[in-house]
Amino acid sequence: MARTRGQARQEPDEGSSKHDETTLSESKKRSQSEIEQDKKGTKAKQPARKKQKSGGSNLVEDSMKSKTDSLLSKYGSLPLASLGLPSPSSSTPENVLALVYNAMLTSARISHELAYKSVKCLIDAGYQDIEALSKSTWQERTELLTRGGYTRYREKTATALGDLADFVNDKYGGDLNRLLEEANSSAAQVRRLLKEIKGIGNVGIDIFCDTAQGIWPCLAPFIDPRSMKTAQQCGLGEDLNAIWETTNKDPERMCRLAAALTTVRLEKKEKEFA
């Protein structure tokens, strides 16, 4: 009887076992397939979220670009455009020297209008030519500055202009473009070398970088700290690279934008763009 009870115990059916294994295998395959489909579905959803985020970002970028275009249209003239110099957008020795005059005179604690008028007096006298500056006397330079209304600093500046002529001739052979060559087109090195010019401090160097980036592209993008605050007030934000993007990374447009922001700041026109 014991043997009969032992025989009553059914052994696993070979066919049934194979069927179960096949079913389990197919189940695993389906599960794996579903997992893969879920992953693909998740990946497919991600671009939609990014697109929504990008769409919001595009609205901000479009608004910034619109403000940039408006600033350029209303106030974005080239720094030397009204001084009567030929080809103000080219890096001639005369243009670079004129920009140094502008940086030197407008960085002083004096009315911007008087400073710019004095720069124009220097240009009208032909001092953008280093030879003309070199041949001028201290008295002649003082009289020119007085004519422009630069009376408070005329003696000191007349001396600085004489030193500038000696410096440019002795170190750079009369052409400040050689300063750019010595700097290996590095903005940081340009700033370091400009500090060797008597009469130009950090504010003056900032002004030079604002106005010279159109003809020395290695200086771009640049907006001086005071004008950067104006940019924020006008709705351009404080991200210099983002502002750079709104100019299509064009150094001349960036130069004109810096000039526009300076004008807006000096004439207190921020509300026009807020």
Describe this structure in words.
The protein has 274 residues and is an all-alpha fold. It contains 13 helices and no strands. It has helices spanning 2-8, 14-75, 93-106, 112-124, 130-135, 138-147, 154-172, 177-182, 187-194, 202-212, 225-233, 240-246, 251-267. α2 packs across α13 (251-267), α3 packs across α10 (202-212) and α6 (138-147) packs across α7 (154-172). The N and C termini lie far apart (103 Å). Mean pLDDT is 86; it is low at 1-24 and 41-53.
Q: How are the SSEs placed, and which strands pair?
A:
Elements: H1 2-8, H2 14-75, H3 93-106, H4 112-124, H5 130-135, H6 138-147, H7 154-172, H8 177-182, H9 187-194, H10 202-212, H11 225-233, H12 240-246, H13 251-267
Main attributes?
single chain; 274 residues; 13 helices
Explain briefly what this protein structure is:
The chain has 274 residues and is an all-alpha fold. The chain contains 13 helices and no strands.
Q: State the helical fraction.
A: 55-70%
pLDDT averaged residue by residue: 86
Separation of the first and last Cα atoms: 103 Å
- The sequence of SSEs as H and E is HHHHHHHHHHHHH
Cα-atom Rg, whole angstroms?
Answer: 35 Å
Low-confidence stretches: 1-24, 41-53
Estimated structural class: mainly alpha
Number of helices: 13
From the spread of the alpha carbons, the general shape counts as: globular
Strand content: under 5%
State the total count of DSSP E strands.
Answer: 0
